[in-house]
Amino acid sequence: MKLRDQMPELEGATTWLNSDPIQKSDLLGERPTLIHFWSVSCGLCKEAMPNVNEFRDEYKNELNVIAVHMPRSEKDLDLEQVEEVAKEHDITQPIFVDNAHKLTDAFDNQYVPAYYVFDKDGQLRHFQAGGGGMKMLRKRVNRVLGKTDK
């Protein structure tokens, strides 16, 4: 995806955890959305999860946060393991389980962890991949929210 691209439809989930299925239309209008890709076999994802959870909690009234589980191997397809790791790492936000890589392909995403920030109209405003860069992510989220940097 390129900056200013529209958010893809949230279609093709193997299942949703922590939520009923969510449509793109449910996310547009009121608040921006952070969609983060992770995988149970990704060490960096697990290390970054406390930061993502902090975002989720800090911005809970201002930002939609959706997790996408992107399997990287056959072992990652085990739904029980996804549920277990989600519980271990306090992932309480909705989780789109993408065992068929439908959303991964729609985003043209190749990385975990990866973070996509969309404005309230569904336009991509920021993308980053990798374990670090939480300060930059916070800056971009604040910009999309119309806040000055903290």
Can you walk me through this structure?
The protein has 150 residues and is α/β, with parallel strands linked by helices. The protein has a single domain, classed as Glutaredoxin, CATH 3.40.30.10. The chain contains 5 helices and 6 strands; from the N terminus they run βαβαβαβαββα. Strands 1-4-3-2-5-6 form a 6-stranded mixed β-sheet, covered by helices on one side. The chain is globular. The two termini are 28 Å apart. The model has no long low-confidence stretch (mean pLDDT 94).
Any key phrases for this structure?
150 residues; six-stranded mixed beta sheet; Glutaredoxin; 6 strands; globular; alpha/beta
Radius of gyration, Cα only, in angstroms?
A: 14 Å
Topology as H/E string? EHEHEHEHEEH
Q: Runs with pLDDT <50, length 5+?
A: none
Oligomer: single chain
CATH class value: Alpha Beta
Number of helix segments? Answer: 5
Strand-residue proportion: 15-25%
How many separate domains make up the residues?
1
Kindly name the structural category. alpha/beta
Largest sheet: 6 strands, mixed
Can you say what the CATH homologous superfamily is? Glutaredoxin
CATH architecture: 3-Layer(aba) Sandwich
Give the spatial strand order of the biggest sheet: 1-4-3-2-5-6
End-to-end Cα distance: 28 Å
Examine the coordinates and then state which fold CATH places here, giving the name of the CATH topology. Answer: Glutaredoxin
The coarse overall form would be: globular
Rounded mean pLDDT is: 94
Helix content: 25-40%
Instruction: Count all strands and give the number.
Output: 6
